[in-house]
Every structure is written in C-alpha cells, then in structure tokens.
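Protocol step 4 of 6: structure prediction from sequence.
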Amino acid sequence: MNASIPWHTKMKGSLWTVGCEVTTILKLFWSHPRAEPAAAENRDDILLKETLPVYSERNILSISDFIKFPEEHSNTRSNTYRQRFQLNHQISTRKMSTAVAVTHSGLGSGVSQNYNEINHKVVSSTNRVSLMFSIANRIGSLSQVLDVMKDYKINLGRIESRPSRSKSTNYDFFVDIDDASEKVIGQVIDRLNELGIATLGDTPMISQTLTSNTTTGGHMQQVPWFPRKLSDLDMFTSKTMEYGTDLDADHPGFTDPEYRKRRIAITTNALKYKHGDRIPYVQYTAEENATWGVVYKKLTSLYPSHACKQQNYVLPLLEQNCGYGPDAIPQLEDVSRYLQECTGWRLRPVSGLMSSRDFLNGLAFRTFHSTQYIRHGSKPLYTPEPDCCHELLGHVPLYADPDFAEFSQEIGLASLGASDEDIEKLATVYWFTVEFGVCKEGDDVKAYGAGLLSSFGELEYSLGGNDQKPKYLPFSPEKAATTKYPVTSFQPTYFVAESFQDAKEKVIDFAAQLNRPFSVRYNAYTQSVEVLDNKQKLSRFVKEIHSQIATLNAAIEKLPI
C-alpha cells in the first residue's frame, strides 16, 4: 500500500458512495413542491431589475477566517469582525436597486449604468438564460445593447456589471433574460456580434441559470445565482478585502512598510489566479520561515495530546509528501496536489476575506480558499486575521481525511442557492464544526476545528486545560445554527461530534430541511454541480447508481469466503 496516501482514503469504496447517492434520490421525493409560474409581465417593456440583498453582520462573516490566539485575542476577533462588516458594507452600497422601464418609445431618462460587483440575487422567472457580454466604458455603450433587447421584446430579469479582467477599458455585463426562445437568443447574439460587442471567455456565452417558481406565503422566492463549475469560482476573486492594503492600526505590521509591501506582492498571486493555473510559488524570506517555525513547533507539540487522531495521522504524511516541517513554509501548489490525490480537494489562493456565501460555495466544489501570506514576525503567536499558519496547520490536514472532506462538502452543497437566512445558519454550523469543533475518541474529547488546531491558547482551553471549563453539547446542526457565539473571547460552548461520518449525516438531514426548492449533486467526473430538477437528470442519476451497484456486487463476489 502506498504510504503517501492515507489508508482510510484507499479503504473508501463504492459502498458509501452508492448509499449516499441513493439517499440523495430518496430525499428528492420530499423536496419542496414547485408552484405555478407567476403571471408574465408586460412583454412590451424591458424591465431592468436589480435586487438589493439583505445582509446581516453575521451573514457576511465567513467564519473560516476567524481565529483566536492567546495574546490579545479580544483584538483578534473584534478586528476581523469589524473588517468583515466593512466588506459587507462595501458590497451592499454598490448594489443599488434599479427599476428602469424601457418602452418602444425609447430609453427612459432614468436609465442608470451601475458598475456593480456580482449580485447574488436574481429575480425568479419560469425560463431564464444568462447572457454575458463586454462593452467599452463610454457613454451610450449600454444603451446600444438595450436597444437590441428592445427590438426583440426581451425582458431582463437582472443586469449586473464589473470592470473587465481581460481589458481595463471595458466592463463585463451579466444579464438574465426571461422567457426567450433559443432562436431569439441566437439572433440577439448575432446582432450584438455584428455591433462588435465581445463575448466572454472560452465557453458558450449562454448558460442555463437556476430559477425558482416556488412561493412562500404568496410571494415569489428569490434564488441567488450560484456557481455550477470550478471555473465559476473565478468570479469571487475581485470580491475580497485585501488585507495587504487594509491593515488596522493595531495590526503588528501596520507601521512596517516592508511588511505591507510584501503582503501586497503575495496577494497579487491570488488576484491573478484562474482555475487551471498552477498556484505560484512564494519565495518566503528567512524571517517568514522563522515565524512559521515558531508556530509549527508550538502547535505540533500539543497535537499528540489534544488533536484528533486524523490530524495526528495525516501530519506525518504532509511532512513526507508536502514539505511540512519547522524549517520552511509549505507551498500551496504542492499541498493542493497531494489533497487531490487523497480526497479530490484542492486549494485556491485568496487575497483576503470572503463573504460567507462565496466561501461556502467553494466548499461544494471541494475547494478551500487559502491565504499565502504569513503574520508579522514581531508576534509569531498572534494574528488578527487568517494566514498560512491557520490554513496549513488548522485546515489542510483534515481535508486529506475522506470523512471530514465529505462532511465539509455537504455544508458547501447546502449553501448553493440558499437564502441569506440559511447561509447564516450554515455559516454558524461551520463555525461550531470546521472551525471550533471537538469530537469523541473513546472516553476523551479531542479537537478537530481549525480555529483550535491553529491556536495553542484555545486548544488547551477547549479540552479543559485551565481553570475555565467550557460546556460540551452533543452536536446538533439545528441547535448549533441558532447558538450565539462570542467574538472577543474563547468559546463558552463546544459541540461534540460522535464522528465525522455522524456529523456529515446530520448535516445532510439538516440541509434537507432548509427552504431551498431544488436539490443538487456534485458530479465528481465533471467536477460540476447538477441541479436535479427534471426526470431526465434523475433517470441518468439512477443509471449511474445501478452501474456502481453492479461494480460493487462484482467486487463482493470476488472476495474470499
């Protein structure tokens, strides 16, 4: 047996996969029913709508990036909390609501060309496709496109824009088109191409966009856009808070111009990264490697007595295969390749804080967004934000464990198309598990949450290592999702999982209760998400299960009695 791959990864056969997929099929029969389509709006008008999403402070906090350390831990999380709310404010204020009617008589005087970040809300419709195009940043460019839409009597359910990544003088636009035939869409594309309006990317410009016809209390539900394939995660790149330029006055590196310059240089990797690229290597300095060494030695000395068995099993494999050790910071590219061999997970560089929705959506694609920069060397055991120590020591090892990897992905899958309220619930569940979770090992309790495994102060505290004793509760997603948590102190309460497998099954049951009118599955072959919303998809899914069962039966028959 190849020692470089965890044994439990190799032992995971078709049995669990088949069982999980059968469970998914069965759950579809208890999914929310679809209501009748709402009455169509006046087809003589082109109504441009943009929905202003409602965020709460907790909603925007992607709890993967909350960390607590023994020194100045009150500043640690209060700063992160404040900065994430600032990110929320920046995003929300740019998503100004518009409702501009364009009639046969021409464009109304109120047409506004708002260059917004990607809005996660779309207006529900019965049949919708998305059209993406790029236009020059000059007066009249958008009006030219809207005139084409008007000529074909097309109704726009959403229009969004952002600065183009491919050409600095352009803006990329994303529009949802309601109830238009494929023929009409093709004619629109041809007309736009004749006008010299460019399409985006190497994939077809039109793609099906999920919408919901369900109603709650007589009101149409709004279903946020969500990624369907790995390359869609590229859209999140420009929506992070770049810590390299946004350090608080109490950050250890605030007054160090060289450190700030270094941070900006490293985060450039993430801003330029696109799916399919190799993660650029960072030539870490001697000081940066020394800082890593201090953290590495301190934390790994506690793992044998405080960390879960999976953490202790995988860490030596990371030392053997990925360059883990006290002497140098491992490279994300090497670690990502190893994780893909173990469980299909991968790392993706990120420049700073992400919204909860974006971060959780990434988990659905077995993708963990990771920083590459490291904390300031003057305080190696303290950081006010996530850095590579937190990611590589707290998160990465357990993504090589199949049960934990599947558990994390279930949270991500549940987040796709979820309402803001449900995103908040899922983010809180993530907080009490992946970040600050503990689990049973015989008669003992061990830590598996990354926030604990990267903070020796709370790692000791969480297992009752000082005068203050935390409270333990059996893990329940329903209970965890509504439990308040402090942001300026250690956790007073921890949820204890029986096992990762048990936690995963509970999250699957919890996700089935969320107010989402569709079901999804992750297709590992295409590394994409499928919405199971018609008989053809369900039939294909069942055939795949039959094929896997046949393979499983053949393998069982070949086993010795």
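Step 5 (inspection) to follow. The longest helix spans residues 535-557.
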